[in-house]
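ARCHIVE CARD
Drawer: 12
Card no.: 0347
Subject: one protein chain, sequence and derived structure
Cross-reference: see card 0346
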Amino acid sequence: MRVVYADNNATTRVAPEVVEAITPFLVDDYFNPSSMYEAAQPAAHAIGQARRDIAALLGAGDPKEILFTSCATEGNNTAIIGTTKANAKRRHIITTAVEHPAVLEV
């Protein structure tokens, strides 16, 4: 019997090329990229390069505009709260009943 996985919204199998790209940071270069010591530099460099690559892909003016979050919920919260604080005079957010709870429950 062939199994068809239809829940990619919840979790998706990691592509082999992604596994290959991240393995060094899980095995050898696992140091905190925000640290100042030398061993942390490969991770810091990789994050910086990823930020530059994504900025170029999206047409962002400055790679510092690219913010990495730990999950979709944190990303949604950051975007929604940031937008509402930047537009304090606008007091309403319009969404739909089918929106994900991570957005509806901010």
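Annotation on reverse: The chain has two domains: 1-68, 70-106. Helices lie at 16-27, 41-58, 72-86, 101-104.
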